[in-house]
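Late entry, written up from scratch paper. The run itself happened at the end of the previous shift, but nothing got recorded in the book at the time, so transcribing now.
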Amino acid sequence: MRTIPFSLMNVHERFLLLQLIDKILKSKLVALPELAGIYDVIHALRNNMEEALHKSRGSRYTTRIAELDVLQDDGFICFRTFIEAYTHTIINTELRAKANQIEAIIRRHGWSLYRVGVKKQLAISLSLINELMQADNQQLLVELNVVDAFNAWKGAVEQVELLYIEKTETEANQKDMASASELGKQTVDLLEKILPGWNYQSEYSSQPEYKELVEAVYDGAANLETQARTRLTRNQKDTVEE
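Output as recorded:
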């Protein structure tokens, strides 16, 4: 009986093998309906492992949050700059006092809030926006003609908030998920149990689909074994060169 050198495979290669078996098995269910139960187990394990691998590669939100953070930084600086400019206006000096009121509010919350971490900045920004949304302050923004700048910054902050909410909910759903490495071990345990049975069926069953199934699995495993050995050789070479 052919064997698969699972010990050579890293977690990604084990996932690729599991994914391959999932596809092969699905294509054989019509001819081999008795394998529907094990297919469901393999498919669920494959989905869980894919999700775990995605999580282990780092949060998919990191890049997007960083992009939105730049927007909220620029939005705040733009809005703050308009207010600061009006405190020095010589065109309509009556606006200076109104700008000073808004500037005082901003300074109370954090004149340079864009310099702090994203989470802290979000909390400060939401507090500041909440105060500036009060009717009296909104009227001052209208008179200063900075409503568009305020709304642009407010919109950027709201995007960051929504993304953080989504990120928190996603991570909460993943809290009880087994690690990718552990799922890789489960994959090996499962395949070591079911492959001998499939091998037996391929030898003695009158159904040719079992032989097709086993050959497809071992051919795919052989390709992954080659990939694994190439990776190991490359890693050993890099270690020697260092």
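The mean pLDDT is 89.
(Scratch paper discarded after transcription.)
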